[in-house]
Every structure is written in C-alpha cells, then in structure tokens.
Automatic annotation (TrEMBL):
Pfam families: GAF. Gene3D superfamilies: 3.30.450.40. This is Transcriptional regulator. GO terms for molecular function: DNA binding.
Length: 448
C-alpha cells in the first residue's frame, strides 16, 4: 500500500510525474478539478489555499527584521535543539544541494542553513529567515503543510501551490512540545527532485522525534514548566495534564470535561478554593448539593493521587498552563508569541462561570493588543482562526492597513450580517466594540 505522505511511489519517473503535476495544477487553477496523480494531502492543501484566495504567483512575506528575528529565536524552544538539527541534518545541508530550515508553529522561518549558492537561489522565492511559510502565506509546501496536518510530509515540484516554488522539493516534520503535546514548529529539508524519496521523509521524521526526546530530557528553558507539570487547556474541551509520572508512562493524562474545569480553576487559584467557592466557580447559581462536588473531587483524586489536596482544595504542585504562556507573552509585549501560543478558546465548550471569565479575559487581552498594534501579519493570522474569522473589528483593522477587494468584501458582508450600515469603501472607524461571531455586541445580536 502506498504511503500517502511520500511524493513518489517506488519506480515512479520524477520527470514524468512533474509534468503530470503541472498539468493537474493548471486544471485545478482554471477549472477547480482534481484527479489523476494528485495525492489527497495535496488536494486538500490546494483547496485550503484556494479558499484563502492565495494567488498562484504569491511569494512568502518577510516581515521580521534582524532584531525581531534574533529575539524570536532566543525565546523559541527549538533554539535548544538547533545543535541536534545541525548534527543530524547539517552535513546534508552543507553538501551543496540541500537546505536545512526550521520554522516556528506559525510557519515563520527562524533558521535557513546550507551552502551559500543554494541559499542565494532560495532567496528568489523568499525562503529566508523571517519569512512566513504557512500554507495561508505561501501555499502548499512541506513545512507549512506539515504544520497544517500535524504529520511529516513531502511536497514535490508542482505539488507546491505557488509557481515560484515549483522547481523545489521538500520534506518536513512537525515537532511537538513533550510537555503539552502542542506543535512548536517544523524541521525541513529542501532541495531538488532527488529529495522525493522515502529516505528524506524518514530522516526528518527521525530528527523531529529526536528533538522531542531532547526537549523532554532537558531542563526547562524560558517559558517552560517550572515544576515539570504542564496543563494544556487552549482550544480543547478535555485538558491534557503532563506530570513527571505521566511522561514516564508514555503520555499525558486526558481529563474529562468536569475534571478539566476543576484542575484549571485550581491552577488559577494556587492558594486553593474552599468547597463553596469552588462550587460557585463550577456551577454558578445552579442548585447543586455539596455531595455532587465531593463525588467529582473523589473521582479526580483517584486520577491525580497526592497532587490534589483538600482543606482548601488545591494542587500541591501548580502546573504551568498554555494559558500562562499566552499571558506571559502579552505581559512581555510579545504579541507574536502570544498569538502563536493561542491554540484556541479556553475549554471552549465549558459553561462554568470561572472558566468563562478566564476565557473572556484572555481573549479580550489578546484582541486588544492585536488591534492596538495593527500588524497586518498578526491580524491575518488571527482572522484565520476559528475565534477570529468573523471578527468585524479585526477585519476593519486589517483593511485599514492592507486594503484590498477581499478585506473590503469581508467587511461589507459582516456589517450586513450584523445589521450595521455599509461603511465608506468597506472602512469604518474603530469604536472599541467587540464585533463578529461570538464577539458581536448585544445590539448587533438583536439586529441579526
């Protein structure tokens, strides 16, 4: 059975396949049809690119200057494993035919290394440090697609969505934070058609796994868990708890929804909560007997053991959460890192009053910072998330700094959906109101 992540099956002719892919690419761009040699992972990526209205002649954006790039590298967890990447892949990159690259979780290239002549060729397509290589910015490509699908993948020749990249082939694998399970970036090899072999894909996969093992064994770096415990609560309804014991057992502990709420609330109150206070945070004004809460805590104690203490209820060791990662980055005025760490709303399905309050505080702080800075790249990233896709004020902010028919059309459509009058040219003054999707004001909701 053919490996769907490999670009070429055994015995395939690279030149013939490249021609087939060019023709398939043209058919898709002109008529939207897919078939023939187009792999499912590539077809899905092309559809995402078309849905994002990415032009096939697009080049990656470069918007990190040297100072910001140096700062981003210094605080990124993959900086700790760059010596390993160079040890395992550096000799290949130095052979004059390949490039070693490492990007962060948003697809921003942090390192691009290899022979100077190959790097100069790659500069023509903006394959340079500081450039954005997510699918949304640069189309189908191995590091961007690996981040999008969460799996190692090869992208061969005209499988790339954007034509300036189609003379290259690349293989990339995502790298996960061993404490939270979240993707923190990707490692990539880029070169010619000869990279479309099982060996290159296996090599980047093995390198990514080695990096994850090194990160798990290394002392926590800046922003890492201070106690060795981590709690992932953003963009998921069931939290993942990482403790030294669960890592030794081979994976995090997945908590049920109510237990996720309890552990999060106790992490947010390190001094502990009495029974009545915890019940208010969980149930609000609902009539719930103390027995119900005690039963939940008894079941949770069976999972956590001595980590959960009582009188008051508290965690003996407070885990560092991905919520903390975002708030710490905002406190440091590092909006890009905060947005990169924001995997989605906090326990999005939870209606527990304490969780809802934390969720709103975090999202409001992040949005305010994005609107204040009005960085077009960050606004585009926010609008590409489920939390931001219908955020009218953010669309208006983006249109103000990067006007175009797409942003104007989206602003007009959202204003109409919220019962607001058209704005001149699709622009409007920022009123400070929170608009769009969940963010609609009460007046806008009543106007729908």
């Amino acid at each position: 059975m053919r490996n769907p992540w490999l670009a070429l099956e055994a015995g395939a002719d690279p030149a013939a396949r490249a021609g087939q892919m060019r023709r398939a690419h043209e058919r898709f761009l002109t008529g939207g049809t897919l078939g023939g040699p187009v792999r499912d992972v590539v077809a899905d990526s092309w559809r995402r690119c078309a849905g994002a209205r990415l032009g096939p002649e697009s080049l990656a954006r470069v918007d990190l200057d040297d100072e910001r790039l140096t700062a981003r590298r210094a605080c990124h967890p993959l900086a700790r494993v760059m010596p390993l990447f160079r040890e395992l892949l550096g000799s290949i990159a130095d052979d004059g035919a390949h490039l070693l690259s490492v990007c962060d979780e948003r697809g921003t290239m942090l390192w691009v290394e290899g022979h100077s002549q190959v790097r100069r060729r790659a500069e023509a397509m903006n394959f340079v440090p500081g450039a954005h290589w997510s699918e949304r910015d640069s189309g189908t490509n191995a590091p961007g697609t690996a981040l999008a699908v969460g799996h190692a993948v090869q992208i061969f020749a005209a499988e790339h969505y954007c034509r300036p990249v189609q003379s290259w082939t690349c293989a990339a694998a995502p790298v996960h934070d061993p404490h939270t399970g979240r993707i923190v970036g990707a490692v990539d090899l880029t070169g010619g058609d000869h990279l479309a072999s099982p060996h290159s894909l296996a090599l980047v996969q093995a390198t990514a796994r080695a990096a994850e093992a090194r990160l798990a064994a290394a002392p926590p770096g800046p922003g890492g868990p201070a106690t060795g415990d981590g709690l992932a609560v953003l963009g998921r309804d069931e939290a993942l708890l990482h403790t030294p014991g669960t890592r030794a057992a081979g994976g995090p502990l997945r908590l049920g929804r109510r237990h996720s709420e309890i552990v999060l609330l106790l992490a947010a109150h390190p001094d502990g909560l009495g029974g009545e206070a915890l019940a208010r945070e969980l149930y609000g004004e609902r009539e719930v007997t103390p027995v119900t809460l005690r039963a939940e805590l008894s079941r949770l104690r069976q999972l956590l053991g001595p980590l959960l203490a009582s009188r008051p209820y508290r965690l003996v060791r407070r885990p560092v959460t991905d919520y903390d990662t975002v708030t710490d980055a905002l406190a440091a005025s590092d909006t890009a890192s905060a947005l990169a760490a924001y995997a989605g709303p906090l326990l999005p399905s939870s209606e527990a009053p304490g969780v809802v309050r934390l969720r709103r505080v975090l999202e409001n702080r992040l949005r305010r910072r994005l609107l204040q800075e009005a960085d077009p790249g960050l606004l585009e990233t926010w609008l590409g998330t489920g939390a931001g896709e219908d955020d009218l004020e953010a669309w208006e902010a983006l249109h103000a700094v990067r006007p175009g028919p797409h942003t104007a059309g989206r602003v007009a459509a959202l204003r109409s959906a919220y019962g607001l009058p058209p704005a001149d040219g699709g622009r409007s003054a920022h009123s400070g109101r929170r608009t769009g999707g969940r963010h609609a004001t009460s007046a806008q909701r009543s106007a729908r």
